[in-house]
UniProtKB/TrEMBL annotation:
Keyword Transmembrane included in the entry's annotation: no
Enzyme class, first EC level, given as a word: oxidoreductase
Keyword Metal-binding tagged: yes
E.C. numbers: 1.14.15.15
Originating gene: vdh_3
Protein name according to UniProt: Vitamin D(3) 25-hydroxylase
Source organism (scientific name): Planktotalea frisia
GO molecular function, one term: cholestanetetraol 26-dehydrogenase activity
Coiled-coil regions listed in the entry: none
Length: 394
């Protein structure tokens, strides 16, 4: 069985040769990943779409594939994690639709467009705090902070709590294996404790924001644990994708990629090329069957490789190159099928505004040291900058 190390710095800098090697094995290859263990991984656009769309034979919850419920599947996790594992990302069918329906309206294109002035204000606020006289870390000082503030505002989390949550989740973005995962547990515990306390406060007060709507709207039937897990996922996932998309894009633009009108085209291409979320969480095979020339056994785990789909030369001409005017650009960087990213309109809007405001103010921004190679985080499943030092050069 091939051991593809998909968080290796060489792969993250240029995944072309490894992805080509995987495709040569077939549209579905056997591999092994930290925490997840042995699994299948899709390698092409067609295979990835097929797996993500086929709810009849692929489940998010192992209980629907002859196994334990997701809350007990990862038995080694502490008890406090169990409500968090049963979240919108790990549920199937009607259960998934019911929870998603409670928040869909808040992430619609119209709802996100209404947030543009507020997102712009947040971006300008953080740009005002950057010191042009010395190198700054765009990843930590700008790309991370902007989406954290925006998702906090959307949820209705009070400002004084945002810094505590930011510090609590910092270790969560680092796990690369089982040992590292356990080092993140204190941060996970603090995060869920802070969110639970905030939910309880909102329950006894009136406040703007999605959390207040979920708690006080009698038309939804979400339990306390479902509201907690939903808030947790939205808070974590609500900033992680955008953080990596922004920092990856800044690197690309500083490396010569064009960022001209319409900037929305460039955002789509950065999302395709970098695929900040490189793969989905594991899906579980519901029934033993033949697929792509392989026998998939009930309970087998399958990873849908979004980066493999987005670099498939059968889907994209010159797939290994950044072309910011690429059109059409039918990438699946935000996933595909029933679990397509809930916050994709928010991520696109945040990235567009963050980059436009940054480069309007600092058009001659350059990396420091000049032409320095990218420094990627080695967290499995993500392709984003660990740090990105730049000179702003106003």
């Amino acid at each position: 069985m091939a051991q593809y190390k998909l968080n290796d710095p060489d792969f993250l800098r240029d995944p072309t040769s490894v992805l080509a090697q995987m495709r040569e094995e077939g549209p579905l290859v056997r591999t092994k990943l930290p925490i997840i263990g042995q699994c299948w991984a899709t390698t092409t656009d067609a295979a990835t779409r097929e797996v993500l769309k086929d709810e009849a034979l692929f489940a998010r919850n192992p209980a629907n594939a002859g196994g334990k419920d997701i809350s007990r599947y990862y038995w080694f996790l502490p008890r406090f994690m169990r409500p968090l594992t049963r979240n919108i990302l790990s549920l199937d069918g009607a259960e998934h639709k019911r929870i998603r329906a409670a928040v869909d309206h808040s992430f619609s294109r119209a709802a996100i467009d209404a947030l543009r002035p507020e997102i712009t204000q947040v971006a300008d606020q953080y740009l005002d705090q950057l010191d042009p006289s010395k190198p700054v870390d765009i990843t930590q000082d700008y790309a991370r902070m902007l989406p954290l503030d925006v998702i906090s505002a959307l949820l209705g989390i009070k400002p004084e709590l945002r810094q505590k949550l930011s510090r609590a989740i910092a270790p969560i973005s680092k796990p690369t294996g089982i040992i590292a995962l356990f080092t993140a547990m204190p941060g996970l515990y603090r995060t869920q404790k802070l969110l639970r306390a905030e939910i309880e406060t909102i329950r006894h007060t009136q406040r703007n924001g999605l959390l207040s709507t979920l708690i006080h709207d009698a038309s939804n039937d979400l339990s306390d644990d479902e509201i907690l897990s939903l808030a947790f996922v939205l808070f974590i996932a609500g900033h992680e994708t955008t953080l990596h998309l922004i920092s990856d894009a800044v690197f690309a633009i500083s490396d010569g990629a064009k960022f001209n009108e319409p900037t929305s085209l460039a955002i789509e291409e950065f999302m395709r090329f970098f695929s900040p979320v490189m793969m989905t969480k594991p899906l579980f095979v519901r029934e033993t069957h033949e697929r792509f020339g392989q026998t998939l056994q009930q309970g087998d785990k399958v990873i849908a490789q979004l980066i493999g789909a987005n670099h498939d030369p059968d889907r994209f001409e010159n797939a290994a190159e950044i072309q910011t005017d690429r059109r059409p650009n039918a990438h699946i960087g935000f996933g595909f099928g029933p679990h397509v990213c809930l916050g994709m309109h928010l991520a696109r809007t945040e990235a567009q505004i963050a980059l436009e405001r940054l480069f309007n103010r600092f058009p001659d921004l350059e990396r420091t040291p000049k032409n320095a190679p990218p420094v990627y985080s080695e967290r499995y499943g993500f392709r984003g900058m660990k740090t990105l030092k730049v000179n702003l050069k106003p």
